[in-house]
Amino acid sequence: MGKGDKKTKRGKIILGTYGKLRPKRGKFKIRPKTIKGPQAK
C-alpha cells in the first residue's frame, strides 16, 4: 500500500483520481453556527 495503490488516499492523490476516500471539493458545506443573543428564549 502506498503511492500506487488505488484504494488509499495517497494513491488517489498521486494518480489524480477521486473516490470515497478523496471526495471532490464542495461536496459537503459546513453551515455557520447561528449566533444566539439575549432574545434566544
TrEMBL record:
UniProt similarity note? Belongs to the bacterial ribosomal protein bTHX family.
Q: What is this protein called?
A: SSU ribosomal protein S31P
Q: Which domain of life is it from?
A: Bacteria
| Species for this entry | Ulvibacter antarcticus
The record's Pfam families line, in alphabetical order, gives: Thx
4Fe-4S as UniProt keyword: no
Q: Recite the UniProt keywords alphabetically.
A: Ribonucleoprotein, Ribosomal protein
Q: Which GO terms describe its cellular component?
A: ribonucleoprotein complex; ribosome
